[in-house]
Design brief:
With 105 residues, the chain is an alpha+beta fold. It has one domain. 31% of the residues lie in helices and 27% in strands. It has a five-stranded antiparallel β-sheet, covered by helices on one side. The longest helix is centred in the first third of the chain and has 20 residues, at 4-23. It starts with a helix and ends with a helix.
Length: 105
């Protein structure tokens, strides 16, 4: 999926579906970098944090060169790194994150 628009669309999908998914387990969205001052370039990376029984964080470290990599952490321990280029669609990539998270939350 080497398409920058799809990578941006994945962020939108992640924001809507992650909150919905984790909400079923009692989690609330505690941080979304999209709500931060976007004139500061460090806020351009995608970072979502949900709090419940544990702390779930999904982010990518680089907003320019490696927008296809997303790191999934639970209680500050990396459990998975997703490379969007390895999936045929953003929906399939989200299902992979979902399957990795369900057992951890």
């Amino acid at each position: 999926m080497e398409n920058f628009k799809q990578r941006a669309d994945f962020r939108t999908l992640l924001r809507s579906k992650l909150t919905e998914l984790l909400g079923k387990y009692g989690y609330d969205l505690a941080f979304d970098n999209q709500n931060q001052d976007q004139s500061i370039s460090k806020n351009w990376i995608c970072r979502l944090i949900c709090l419940g029984k544990k702390r779930v964080e999904i982010h990518n470290d680089d907003w320019r060169d490696y927008t296809e990599y997303f790191i999934v952490k639970v209680d500050d321990k990396e459990i998975f790194m997703l490379n969007l280029d390895n999936y045929k669609s953003i929906e399939v990539a989200f299902e992979e994150i979902k399957s990795k998270l369900i057992d951890k939350v």
